[in-house]
Each structure stands twice: as C-alpha cells, then as structure tokens.
Design goal:
This protein is of the alpha+beta class. It has a domain at 11-95: START domain (Alpha-D-Glucose-1,6-Bisphosphate, Chain A, domain 4). The protein is 27% helix and 37% strand. The chain contains three helices and seven strands; from the N terminus they run βααββββββα. The chain has helices spanning 15-23, 25-31, 110-132, and strands at 2-11, 35-38, 45-49, 57-64, 68-73, 84-92, 95-105.
Length: 142
Amino acid sequence: MTRDVLLAIEIEAEPKVVYDTIASPEGLAAFWTPDVRSEGADGAELSLGFEAAPTRLPAAVEADAPSSVSWAFGGDWPAWAGSTASWSLQPSGQGTTVVFRHGFPDSMPEYDFGSVALTWALVVARLKDVVESGGAPDPALR
C-alpha cells in the first residue's frame, strides 16, 4: 500500500514544451535541482544531486512523449528507494493539465511525508514558473 503526494496544475504551454522540460536534464536543472546527470529520456538512468544530501538520488526513467514521464527511485534514500514519481500531461484549454503523483510506502513517517509533499508542491509551482517564463532557470532546490 502507498501514501501518495498528488498535485495538479495548469500550465500555459503545449504539452510538448512541458514534457521537454520534465524529460531533459536542462529542464530538470531549471526547475528542480541544478545537479542533474542523465543520458536522455525513456529507459535512461537519472541521477540527481542536492547540496543537503550526502548521496545522489538515482532513478530509472520511463517516458511516453509528450504525455508522461515517470521515475522509479533507488539508492541510499530509505524513504524514496522503491518509490515512483509520475507526471501525466494532458492538453487543456490554452495549455496543459499536469498531474504529478509520488507514491511512498505507508511506513513513511507522517512528518517526513508532509515535508516531502510541501517540497513537491514548491517544485511543481517552479515548473509552471519556468515553463511560462520561457525557461529562465530558477531551481526550487539546490
């Protein structure tokens, strides 16, 4: 069983623009963390670095352009190892509806879950800002 962070936001850009931001190392560096290593999108290995973290966060990437991206996390982050984050992108009105979901085991402590949920909300809001501003880098985390 999992406990999910579930967020939705409207972004005034075509799904391909949003997808390219989420699926590329340059895009991730613009809205999430500037320390991104990746070989590409679908089937690639993603590795993220954060100043406050002692180890990198690895993830296997699955992508279906331009409608979805998901990351299966591994590594030495106990609360994140075995979890999956996914982005679903659907055309809507003048842009894209983005639905973000990150599932964690029920065993994750509530205080950790609350902190992670708040952080993801900030990251998703930063994605919107970066895409709508034309890509001016301003990562939510360092």
